[in-house]
Automatic annotation (TrEMBL):
A GO molecular-function annotation: O-acetyl-ADP-ribose deacetylase activity
Lineage summary: Bacteria, Pseudomonadati, Pseudomonadota, Gammaproteobacteria, Pseudomonadales
Species this protein is from: Pseudomonas duriflava
Limits of the Macro domain: 1-169
Pfam families (alphabetical): Macro (PF01661)
Classification via InterPro entries: Macro_dom (IPR002589), Macro_dom-like (IPR043472)
Annotated protein name in UniProt: O-acetyl-ADP-ribose deacetylase (Regulator of RNase III)
Amino acid sequence: MHIQVWQGDITSLEVDVIVNAANESLLGGGGVDGAIHRAAGPELLEYCRRLGGCPTGEARLTPGFNLLARFIVHTVGPVWQGGQHDEARLLAKCYRNALALAESVDAHSIAFPAISCGVYGYPAEHAAALAVKVLSEPRPTGSAVQSVLLVAYSEAMHQILEQAIATGG
Ligand code: APR
């Protein structure tokens, strides 16, 4: 699996799966969640209403609707509370569960935003290192996913993600 950084708006990517940093309601919000719902269109919200929410660390699959991406994996990252509240384990779960759902639809390419690094306040350096470490773990044989994009929405995040990849997480 090839992991690389890409800087820009995740909703513009033509990949099999884009990952949404959602909240437990799955009913939309600000940040990347708001951008994805705006770009996917109102059918996404209708679809999400029927999912009944998603616990932190878990992930749910939806169609991409008006997005170029075929699917969206909605995952709920932990809110940073200082680091002693299981945040790292829950963030790692987000990446693993999202990847597993992408594999379940034979996705070859997946793009992740910096889950929890915005409103949820997770320190970007820690989150970036964790993401690279988890995404570098061996995958089941036959896993279709070949390309992983870590999407930076700022130059600062771009540098942080490049650094995490350079050091292997
Ligand atoms: N494309 C790529 N990345 C983006 C985009 C975008 N269009 N918009 C924002 N980001 C980046 C942010 O800069 C940040 O680095 O996504 C990262 C995650 O930030 P948030 O979107 O705030 O997500 P998170 O910190 O996980 O908080 C989730 O915020 O939007 C609400 O409904 C969401 O309640 C949930 C909470």
